[in-house]
Structures are given as structure tokens and as C-alpha cells.
Amino acid sequence: xxxxxxxxILGMMPICSITAQCITGRVFDEQSQPMSFVNVxxxxxxxxxxxxxxxxxxxxxxxxxxxxxxxxxKVSSIGYQTQYIQARKGNVGDxxxxxxxxxxxxxVVKGHVPSYRMTTEGIQTNVENTVxxxxxxxxxxxxxxxxITKKDGVFEVFGKGTPLIYINGRLMRDVSELxxxxxxxxxxxxxxxxxxxxxxxxxxxxxxxxxxALQGEGFxxxxxxxxxxxxxxxxxxxxxxxxxxxxxDVFGTFHYALDNGxxxxxxxxxxxxxxxxxxxxxxxxxxxxxxxxxxxxxxxAFNDNNSLGFRYTMILRPDYKTTSTVVSDITANNTxxxxxxxxxxTRSSFHxx
Length: 353
Hints:
Elements: H1 2-19, E1 22-28, E2 39-43, E3 50-55, E4 61-65, E5 71-76, E6 83-87, E7 90-96, H2 101-104, E8 115-118, E9 122-126, H3 138-142, E10 148-151, E11 154-157, E12 164-167, E13 170-171, H4 176-180, E14 186-192, E15 206-211, E16 218-229, E17 233-245, E18 248-260, E19 263-272, E20 276-301, E21 307-332, E22 335-350
Parallel strand pairs: 1-7, 12-15
Antiparallel strand pairs: 1-4, 2-3, 2-5, 5-6, 8-9, 9-14, 10-11, 12-13, 14-15, 16-17, 17-18, 18-20, 19-20, 20-21, 21-22
């Protein structure tokens, strides 16, 4: 069996080099040591859209099989500056990663980088007491793991698509749970790329999040407040509480989010017939959404591997407002022909009937 596998590898290598259908390279750190478990992602040069990705091996090498040329390679690892290089078929050479203490501020401490190890099913990442535990939320941690990328708000595993996500053995049914899970409460995360027969045949990848054992008894709570300012202002206010006695845990969450968006678009159209028609079309879309998320649940642990509980989630979206503006100017042979200016304001409320 070993000989057969070895022959396959030898047979593949010449094909890749002769036909030049691969992008290869090697990643090393500031001390010229090879870096494993580094994300290497191929991006579309025009819009930076994700195409495919891979993870470096123990010797720092990587291979991306693709027929695309002249794109971008994004090379990233927690605690290091992200590198963008031109991606052409063949060997792109050595890529040096430099420490990035500015990105994570004081949380980057030498000796506290996350540890990774290969398992029979995929990659296991130790999060506890590492820089990953200081990122903020479970969503932030997943975004920095090897083999995983975030595309349009959805996590994807390289070459496998969207994974199933489990938290302490319970299937996650609402992605907001990741945002409500504190990174400091996570012990480890295992990325399974070969799920096996224990999962449905349609499942191509699984992420298993294991949190730290809860300590102490009595009532406790924590508050999270986040403010995001760019062109718009977004807010997140969250209160988590729990009561613990022996093996019984009762918990709840109150979560409020204010999301503001701005999506402008400009289209210029030119039609040349007997008359030269030009249209300048501007569309401006401003949505504003409020969301209240309330969670209550309980869990009883029979032992370290078996527990029973329930979780109830109520989501309210009391106010959803949009403002849409459309402006159109048309000329014929560079002479004014028509003008349209339209503004539409809508407001919707979602509540039980």
C-alpha cells in the first residue's frame, strides 16, 4: 500500500511541472524557518474574490492546482503580516512572513502562538492561552484558522465548502452563536476534512469547537459593548448571564445589534446609432436594521462526555428601514434629453401576528 501511494506522488509531480498547471512556493518566518499551517489563498485580481486555497506543509511548501494565471496570492497566519504577491503558474519562490505586533496590539506575545497538529481526520488547533483566545469572539477565531476562509459572511473550508459546526457536541443551528461565544472560553477547535461514516454522505467538512470547563458555582454575568465606525455606525450590546450549581448550568443572553449599510452603484451606458445616447445611472441604497436576540437554556452534565439540555432562542426585528435613491440623466448627442430623480423610503416591522 505504501509503495502504491509513493508511485502516485511521483507520477503527479512531473505532470504538474510539465504542464505548469500548479502554483508552488515555500513560506518561512523571520528566522528563515519553514512555517506550517499557513493559509495560502488564490484571489481574483479584479475583485479579490476567493478562488481556492490550501495550507502549507511541515516544510513550509504549498501547491495550488489551477489553470488560472496572473491572479493574487494571499498568504496569512495569525501574528504575522499578510502578504499579497502576484500568482503565476510555476514556482513563486520563497515567501517570508514578518511578525505583525500592530495588528493584535499587546495580545501578540512570543511563546503564545497557537499550536496545531494533524489528526487522522484533519487539523486540531489549541486556542486556550494563545493569541487566538484574545481575538474577541468565536467568529473571530474561526476566521484565523488554517484551512478556513470567510466568504460573504459564511465560513468555507478549502476545497470542501460550508462545514457543519458543533459546539461541545451540539450542532450549531444559528451562526450568531459564534458571535456570542467568547474566544477566551474556547479550549480547542478541530477541523475535520474527512468526516467519515459517522456523518451524512453530503457532509464534506466539520468544525468541532470545544469550550473550557466551567469553574465555580453561583450567579455570574458579563457585558459586551462594541462600536464600529466607518462610513456608517454599527452597534452591538450583549449581556450574558448564567447560574451554576454542581452539574447544573442555567444560562441566557440578551443581544442587541444595530446594522447600517450603504451600497452605492454607478452605471454609464453608451448606445451609438444615428443618435449617440448616453445614460448616467446612480443608485444609492441605505438599509438600517435592528435585531434583538434573546436566549435561555439549561444544561446538565452527567459526566465529561455526556450531557442533556435545551436552548430556546427568540429573535425580534422590530424595525427595518431602507432609503433608496435613483438618479438618471440621459443625453442625445451630448444634449440634455431626460432626467429622473426618485427617492423611496420604506419601513417594516417583524412581530408575531
